[in-house]
Amino acid sequence: MGLIIAFVIFIASMIFMLITGHSMVWALLIGLLLFTGLGLKQLDMPVSKGIKELSSSSWGSIRDSLIVIEVMLIIGLITAAWRISGTITIFVFYGMKVIVPPLFLIIAFLLSCLLSYALGTSFGVAGTVGVIFMALARSGGVDPVITAGVLMSGIYFGDRGSPVSSSANMVAGITKTDILTNVKIMMKTAALPFALTLAAYIVVSIMNPISHVDAALMDSFKSEFTLSPWGFVPAVLMLALPLLKVGVILSIVISVLASSVIAFLVEKISILEICKVLLLGYHPTGEGLSAILDGGGLVSMIEIAIILIISCAYSGIFNRTGMLDGLLSRITKCCTKIGRFATSVLVGLASCVLFCNQTIATLMHNDLLTKPYLDTGGTRQELAIDIENSTIIIVGLIPWAIACSVPLTFFGIGNEAILWAWYLYLVPLCYLFTKKRWYADKVPAA
């Protein structure tokens, strides 16, 4: 009963923070106090010794996530670097140059897929490229609801499967698996849903052609940025280096350095200003196109890093006290009856609905399914891919979840756009029916 009460208070505090617009960190701290208190009661030992035990266990979980936190902070740098160097802008500019009216939605989908994969951020692409494509759709007579759904599919293509994605690195960290191995498997499992989504959007795109491209918007690109072909270099490096087996962190650092050099030599931005943008984000004072690109920077990832640290402390407390053992036994039975991935989908859906946050839902998913997976013959590698194909994707379909509401707010569209985000439906559906045929017997040993 104590655990149920703690969870009810925790969920209520999360809902309160969401409604009032306060940071989720406060809700997590409340939860940490609740679960620590419950853990001390279950350990049944002197308070000082109990706190030491729980702190040690929590630190063990946090230590395992430090590499993920490091990657997240560096990702904050690249999101700012690509803005100030004109990399994002040049992709959109030349993408619009090749727009053929019936292919507008296809280009929006493919370009958002490419940039989300290169940047590893759904919000970053939604708040930049996504806003631009929504403006083009509205001015060119394309249904904005359909456009928003297409963009939702595109931004989560990279958020799920990019080697620089914070969610992909978080999953790799908490499941203790290799990020590049995960990415390779995710690309294979994405092939069928991506092909089906692309085919469907081709039909939709032909039926909803854009009437014209706003010339004023194109002119604003030219006035705000140099639009040198050098702007492609940071993205090419970020895409190519991991394929050449260069580490994720080093690849990001090289891309950031390349962006900084381009910003200095091509965009004529001072070194001091570049350093300021990398740390604090790109915050232009004008009201032109550059204002759309506002954001990024090291500070943009600090709150996410704090959330991950606190959430990992939960894992340590749960593991040390065994307070979830009763629930884990039921989940293990479910894995045996309906299969591990079907169970993963149910747990992921419940986590997303309850916690409204991709990070917390993912961490809870891992805590609840690690033991059942290992006890039923699964591996950590399998669990990592199953989380990517369930929770990481499903959260984008929950209207009140941050992963869904924030991009739709950027787009200025209601929840009806979710019906057109077909990639988010097809990933778990296709994987559910194809996993046994090609994947289950190929999972590397844990």
Question: How many DSSP helices?
Answer: 22
Low-confidence regions: 440-446
The chain-level structural class is mainly alpha
H and E order: HHHHHHHHHHHHHHHHHHHHHH
The share of residues in extended strands comes to under 5%
Mean pLDDT: 83
Q: Any idea what the shape is?
A: globular
Number of strands: 0
Helix content: over 70%
Q: In a nutshell, what does this entry contain?
A:
By secondary structure, the protein is an all-alpha fold.
Describe the structure.
This protein has helices spanning 2-20, 24-43, 47-84, 87-97, 104-119, 122-140, 144-161, 166-175, 179-207, 215-224, 233-240, 248-265, 271-280, 289-292, 302-321, 325-338, 340-355, 358-375, 380-388, 391-394, 402-411, 422-438. It is 76% helix and 0% strand. The chain has 22 helices and no strands. Helix 8 (166-175) packs parallel to helix 18 (358-375), helix 9 packs across helix 22 and helix 16 crosses helix 17. The chain is globular, with a radius of gyration of 22 Å. The protein is an all-alpha fold. The longest helix has 38 residues, at 47-84. The model is unreliable at 440-446 (pLDDT under 50).
